[in-house]
Amino acid sequence: MAHGPLAGPPPPVPAPAVRTVLGDIPPADLGVCDAHDHLFLRSPQLPGQELDDPGAAAAELRAFRAAGGAAVIQWTPYGMGRGAAELPRLARESGVRIVAATGLHQAAHYPPEVLERVRSGLAGRFVTELTEGIGGTGPRAGMIKVAGGFHGLDAHSRHTMAAAAEAQRATGAVIGVHLELGTGALDVLDLLCGELAVPPDRVILGHLNRSPDLVVHRAAAAAGAYLAFDGPSRAHHATDWRLPDALAALAEAGFGDRILLGGDTTTAGARSVNGGPGMPHLLRRHRERLETALGAELVTQFLTANPARAFAAAWTRPQQPGRGTGPTGPTGPTGPTGPTATA
Ligand SMILES: [Zn+2]
């Protein structure tokens, strides 16, 4: 019916893929997924508890695999000892798919001079790590990790999230957010999805189990974000036994497709190979307990179909961050809106 001039072929839309450290895979190949965990982690906040031993990481992956695990998303961002160079070998040897992260954590996790050095070029750094590789020769990151604060967002959080939003727009990658003690979910959504116009389904809110506020959970799910319930609690044990009820409430409200589960092993002592719960806990006691409360089908959806959808991206060719193209409007007072330096 159309008689006008042809507009030319539409630009090809890339098929969604999960970007693992061994390359892009179809989402359906991800398998049973620990949607938030760490094989390597280093922070001045956790002195003496560093995850920095490749042998221990390999042993933990073997234990996870033996418990039925197929994929681990490592939320360790820039400058926290991600072990990027080790990840491809660990994935090959264990048979567990691994997704690495770019991004930046709270300021408290870095020496001030590191923040000073990287803060003006964050969006460009994130894009480079997502599209070219970590540190020049490392694997590509498959997600962007950022962090909020306790019931609020400081200037560092806002700056980092503005950079993450730019990198998200340039690549399609999903943004995973550490919520401090599970708080601030709606502040984060206001910033990322309101001011910065990130599509809600490109946001994963982490640690919501630590603040079992069912009203907030439901509001975040209704907004379209993914909700990660990640990690057995240590200091806040009381939140653990509320988890089945929290997930049941979300599922009953029709948000079963928003839920992700993770282990979030952050210290050497928490590893299963050191006597802690570690990654296998998610698929042993945790899964069993949730299946008793919610049924196996729903829990399988949390562990497979949901992470496959959440971490898949229609990876676009990188555009230069900072151009301000697209219908996104102003990026707020703290956004790095100028052209960013390369990483
Ligand atoms: Zn974590």
UniProtKB/TrEMBL annotation:
Pfam families: PTE
Region (Disordered) residue spans: 315-343
Superkingdom, natural source: Bacteria
PROSITE patterns to which the protein is assigned, alphabetical: PHOSPHOTRIESTERASE_2
Known cofactor(s): a divalent metal cation
Residues the entry annotates as binding Zn(2+) 1: H36, H38, K145, D264
Alphabetic keyword roster: Hydrolase, Metal-binding
Co-factor: note: Binds 2 divalent metal cations per subunit.
GO molecular function ontology, one term from the record: zinc ion binding
Sequence positions bearing N6-carboxylysine: K145
Gene3D superfamilies, sorted: Metal-dependent hydrolases
Residues the entry annotates as binding Zn(2+) 2: K145, H178, H207
Stated family: Belongs to the metallo-dependent hydrolases superfamily. Phosphotriesterase family.
Name this protein carries in UniProt: Phosphotriesterase
